[in-house]
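HUMAN: Mind sharing a backbone?

ASSISTANT:
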Amino acid sequence: MVAADLAVLLDGAYVVGSNPAFDYRFGRSFLARHGQCWTANYHLIDVQALALGHLYGHGGDPATIKPGIPWRSRDLYGAFVDLNRYDSHTALDDARMVRDIFDAVTGTGAQ
């Protein structure tokens, strides 16, 4: 039942995540085990890349991140949201944080 409901919700949706490649692999495998298909849009949206690009491309404060590669995700995310509002590494709050970062970077949500 969960897989069928998830398949309907994902149909044509864009997957936005902090590690959307993992979400894709896990979700596709989960759905397949339950007789469903992954039908979300094939473009995965990574908020880490969006956040980094926004900081550098829109005159943000790149000093909030440490030089070098890779950047710490939390350093990037903290430039857009108050990380204390979220319970770290819980699925629901991680999803809320990703949504809020996406909204802050793209200007699409309530700030």
